Amino acid sequence: MTQQSLAKIVLTGAVAGVIGGGAILYGQRELSDIQTKTQKVNTKAEKTAAIPTNATATTAYNKISDAVVSVLNFSQTGKNSFSESSEGSGVIYKKANDAAYIVTNNHVIHGAAKIQVMLHDGKKVEATLVGKDAMTDLAVLKIDPANVTTTAAFGDSSQIQVGQKVLAIGSPLGSQYASSVTEGIISAKKRLVDASSENGQNYGGSTVIQTDAAINPGNSGGPLVNFAGQVVGINSMKLSSSASGTSVEGMGFAIPSDQVVDIVNKLVKDGKVTRPAIGIGLVELSAVTVDDQKSLLKIPDAVTGGVVVMSTTPNGPADRAGLKKYDVITAIDGKKVSGQADLREELYKHNLNDTIDITFYHQNDKKTVKVKLTQKLES
User: Fold this and answer.
1) What is the set of domains in the chain, with CATH numbers?
2) How far is CA 230 from each of CA 6, 65, 78, 151, 378, rounded to the nearest angstrom?
3) Is the Cβ–Cβ distance between 250 and 69 less than 8 Å?
4) Kind and range of the H or E element at 224?
5) Phi-psi bin for 33: left (phi > 0), alpha (psi -120 to 50), beta?
6) Beta partners for 357?
7) Strand pairing partners for 131?
8) Which residues are catalytic?
9) Which residues contact 242 (CB under 8 A, 6 or more apart)?
10) pTM of the entire predicted model
11) Quick one: 315 exposed, middle or buried, by C-beta within 10 A (0-12, 13-18, 19+)?
12) Per-residue pLDDT of the chain (379 residues; tens, 9 = 90+)
């Protein structure tokens, strides 16, 4: 690989032919008419409950099913008339003060002029948008709590195991199939897939849980549940075909619950999510040939993971800290960075204007520098 070819490397996601879970029926318009209000809710992921030895899909489903809802997206067709555009799923995770809070996918409510929620008993209620985040594809709604009898608990997604049984609950193909449940396993704890906003801005990659539980259009926003009945992920997308057009089965993706908890708290508090950036263009070290690692990067053979700096934002955080093209970042605050997923995970634990320690290799020299996160990632 030449220096020129290395510079052309781009990360590509695993979701060629991704289908978002909202079952689109008609055209949509920009969401601008919905009143946005914020109210702080102290929600956190609980310690993952021990799964009883006699736990079954039925016991897990019964524990959470009443908290799973259908989310109906309406476009405006006249001054006072609306038409249903799409349907997805959601889960009620908190009942506090004068509202009950629902997490769903951003793409489920995108373009809505009005949002309704259909509860487990079939009753439909109006919903207010609290906040949305395109990068993680999450949104928070709130409804009147009067008819809410059950809320879901979040489990610790860092504790899930490959091969562990899970359920996906939602409304595949719409609310006529509400509360449908499918069973599968965790296929991978962390998978990096491409992420982009509705306007086409690419965010580089999202870290998701891979599962073979069936996820169909309309399941988006519904919970991925462990057999203790806790939410370990929010179902978001599925892989329907490979880059070559080959049909794919049993590859669904869910946003990890630990990430969900962090995002929903920020959305409820501020109505949006502001993220720091270090101001670099990058490729994963694993995408660089061994020969180029020696001739271009000139890093020690012992360095087997990390991200390669391909460019820096002029006067951005990384640039001011002295990082250069072909430096290889291997840790943030002492936490190992094997690739882009690790970099994002560690970086997004911080707020704008925090200072972090970045460990990197400049050729054969290992260095650690302090970087102040003054650059904001726009979404």
Assistant:
1) 23-31+55-147 (2.40.10.10), 154-270 (2.40.10.10), 274-377 (2.30.42.10)
2) 44, 11, 42, 10, 32
3) no
4) strand 223-226
5) alpha
6) 370
7) 140
8) 107, 137, 220
9) 16, 17, 248
10) 0.77
11) exposed
12) 444 444 333 322 222 223 233 433 322 223 333 333 333 444 666 667 788 888 999 999 999 999 999 999 999 998 889 999 999 999 999 998 899 999 999 999 999 999 999 999 999 999 999 999 988 899 999 999 999 999 999 999 999 999 999 999 999 998 999 999 999 999 999 887 765 444 444 445 678 999 999 988 899 999 999 999 999 999 987 766 555 566 778 889 999 999 999 999 999 999 999 889 999 999 999 999 999 999 999 999 999 999 999 999 999 999 999 999 999 999 999 999 998 888 988 998 898 999 999 999 999 999 999 999 998 876 5
Q: Which amino acid would we find at residue 4?
A: Q
Cα–Cα nearest to 326, from 357, 365, 355, 356:
365
- Residue whose C-alpha is closest to residue 149's, from 95, 224, 78: 95
Q: What is the DSSP string of 171-191?
A: -TTSGGGTTEEEEEEEEEEEE
Residue labelled with tokens 């708290």: 265
